[in-house]
Amino acid sequence: xxxxxxxxRIEPRxxxxxxxxxxxxxxxxxAQDAAASATEDxxxxxFSEGNLAYxxxxxxxxxxxxxEAYRLKPLPAFLFNIAxxxxxxxxxxxxxxxxxxxxxxxxxxxANADVVRELIAEMDTQARVQEEQRLERERFARDRELQKAxxxxxxxxxxxxxxxxxxxxPVAPEQNGASQALALQVPDASVKTAxxxxxxxxxxxxxxWAGAGAVAVLAGGAxxxxxxxxxxxxxxxxxxx
Length: 241
Fold this sequence. Notes:
Radius of gyration: 62 Å
Oligomer: single chain
Shape: rod-shaped
């Protein structure tokens, strides 16, 4: 609200200054001094707002106020304050930039020049670390996306295999193995028949003729015993006889 009131108060002065420049009329020294004083007052007001915001830890607001103050009155000291805000906001590369601008635009070497150089070195180190962390996050994100794509491809392949198996179910391995074992245990009857050969008639079997020969020998012996003379006694004699 204070800035708005002050801008309205200095608006007629700025308007009269613009009209004087457009009409080519010389601007009185008093008007120039008044305009410069108003600009300086506005810059001081922004500077005070920035200091208050900085003390409250509102570094975004402080950065905006110090930037506006520098636009109104480009003093190198404002650049140092801008750099401090960027440092608090974890913007090391921007902070180092404004620290360097502060040193280069100062007409004389500032009293805190050594401290500022240390801050520049610190900000450069933090900027490198931030860049490495950013690259690492990008690599991690790429690896995660690649892994996700691989998992999706594997899932799609598994679903395709399931669909193929559902359409053409294979023979169960245990059933196939049991059938093979049964075939090994029970040979083909045609193979056994081929190995056995054709059946012979009973008249050509050797054991039939062997049995018939034995019967004939026994019968011949019985006939001889029945018709032969009385054989000699082959037993031993006794004293009584």
